[in-house]
């Protein structure tokens, strides 16, 4: 009789749930330790491009049941003039990349993953020693890297709020922006104050998600990591240079306490995601700005690699485990660090001094040209047209040849 190898997964966020699904599919027994009881989730949506929906589809994730809305167009407006500076449709993304690009409410994505992970409630409410998996005080990451934590606030924060699409469509000025348009990003960018307001629908098109990335203001977001309150006046003051044609009334549609603000963090790229028999996945490995809406997607990719590489490992076989984890690093360090460094550099990315050199420390594949826009065709090709299963299977075959 053989015993299954066992993994402990710390944290049941998107990365933890996806890891536990992947490892179970690889034949492992999994224990999930999550400090919270999930009474609340972050009230915001998330876009999941084909590099990750490929993985979720293999797991039979039910996109329809989770209210997923296709994300097949991206429009950037100049915030000060209201003019369109970029518009791209990618309705053929499923045809060309094999899988759809979807937007979901985070709670719905989480619930869908939790259903597949068949997580026992017993795993919740278990805090593993260490303050938080990725925050500045994290002992877990310090233990993992053997260095003091280098996570720092970026000086950038996000206002986020959800509004009903019925309310948006009832407004004669807002209606033309969304009604009858292909679903996807509608974004307003103020390059002077470096503000980016991104909106898109989720929950079957019934809810509009809004996120305004902006320079952190004194005192905001300090009460709570995720759930600090921001007033409408705070948001209006931040958007003071925005053209009147910009849909400012969407701010008014937020409920009185409906706008939340949280800080964004960054950390230098890790040179390895592996330490002995431990591996970091998700924001613990590569916390990033949401420039390319890619943090969760790249984490889900990593779990597909884990699924392939861990399938051949037997309980107690630490030699094979070490070999497969070395392959994991070889596959994932270039992809994850490229995505993180490009995201953290913001839309101007290659114009930011030192960014290209830093990316080239880890990643030697083709780079989108300077000026390539987030979710524009060059970045879609670089970030989304990737089959993590195939890459892992090929690396594995090569390693045994
Ligand atoms: C505004 C914004 C928009 C974004 N949009 C997108 C997008 O459109 N597409 C995309 O792919 N990505 C997006 N991202 C990135 C994405 O949200 C993250 O990459 C993803 O949620 C990270 O998941 P995670 O599981 O690694 O971390 P988390 O979601 O932070 O989960 C960590 C879990 O670990 C638990 N935990 C922490 N410490 C302990 C402990 N000591 N013991 C036990 N449990 C613990 C926590 O309670 C939590 O549940 C966005 C990010 C932001 C900020």
From TrEMBL:
GO molecular-function terms, A-Z: FAD binding; monooxygenase activity
Segments crossing the lipid bilayer: none
The keyword Oxidoreductase belongs to this UniProt entry's keyword annotation: yes
Pfam family, one: FAD_binding_3
Protein name (record): 3-hydroxybenzoate 6-hydroxylase
PANTHER family xrefs: FAD-BINDING DOMAIN-CONTAINING PROTEIN-RELATED (PTHR13789:SF215), MONOOXYGENASE (PTHR13789)
Matching InterPro entries: FAD-bd, FAD-dep_Monooxygenase_BioMet, FAD/NAD-bd_sf
Keyword Oxidoreductase included in the entry's annotation: yes
Residue span(s) of domain FAD-binding: 270-316
Annotated family: Belongs to the paxM FAD-dependent monooxygenase family.
Keyword set, alphabetical order: FAD, Flavoprotein, Monooxygenase, Oxidoreductase
SUPFAM superfamilies tied to this protein: FAD-linked reductases, C-terminal domain, FAD/NAD(P)-binding domain
């Amino acid at each position: 009789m053989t015993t299954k190898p066992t993994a402990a997964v710390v944290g049941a966020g998107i990365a933890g749930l996806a890891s536990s699904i992947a490892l179970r599919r690889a034949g492992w027994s999994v224990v999930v330790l999550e400090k919270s009881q999930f009474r609340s989730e972050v009230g915001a949506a998330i876009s999941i491009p084909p590099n990750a929906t490929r993985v979720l589809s293999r797991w039979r994730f039910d996109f329809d049941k989770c209210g997923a809305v296709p994300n097949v167009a991206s429009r950037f407006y100049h915030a000060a003039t209201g003019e369109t500076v970029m518009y791209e449709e990618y309705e053929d993304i499923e045809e060309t990349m094999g899988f759809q690009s979807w937007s979901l409410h985070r709670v719905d994505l989480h619930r869908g993953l939790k259903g597949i992970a068949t997580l026992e409630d017993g795993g919740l409410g278990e805090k593993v020693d260490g303050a938080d998996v990725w925050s500045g005080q994290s002992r877990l990451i310090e233990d993992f890297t053997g260095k003091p934590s280098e996570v720092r606030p970026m000086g950038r924060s996000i206002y986020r709020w959800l509004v009903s699409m019925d309310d948006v469509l009832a407004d004669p000025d807002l209606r033309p922006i969304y009604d009858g348009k292909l679903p996807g990003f509608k974004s307003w960018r103020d390059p002077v104050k470096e503000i980016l307001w991104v909106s898109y629908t989720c929950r079957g098109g019934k809810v509009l998600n809004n996120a305004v990335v902006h320079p952190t203001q004194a005192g905001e977001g300090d009460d709570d990591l995720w759930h600090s309150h921001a007033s409408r006046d705070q948001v209006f003051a931040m958007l003071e240079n925005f053209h009147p044609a910009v849909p400012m009334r969407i701010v008014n549609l937020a409920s009185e306490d409906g706008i939340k603000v949280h800080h964004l963090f960054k950390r230098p790229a890790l040179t390895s995601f592996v330490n002995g028999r431990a591996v970091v996945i998700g924001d613990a490995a590569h916390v990033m700005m949401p420039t390319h809406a890619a943090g969760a997607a790249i984490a889900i990719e990593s779990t597909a690699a884990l699924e392939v590489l861990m399938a051949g490992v037997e309980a107690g076989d630490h030699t094979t485990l070490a070999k497969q984890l070395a392959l994991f690093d070889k596959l994932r360090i270039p992809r994850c660090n490229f995505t993180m460094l490009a995201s953290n550099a913001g839309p101007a990315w290659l114009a930011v001094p030192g960014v290209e050199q830093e990316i080239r420390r880890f990643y030697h594949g083709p780079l989108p040209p300077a000026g390539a826009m987030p979710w524009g065709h060059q970045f879609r090709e670089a970030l989304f047209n990737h089959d993590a299963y195939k890459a892992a299977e090929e690396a594995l075959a090569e390693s045994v040849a």
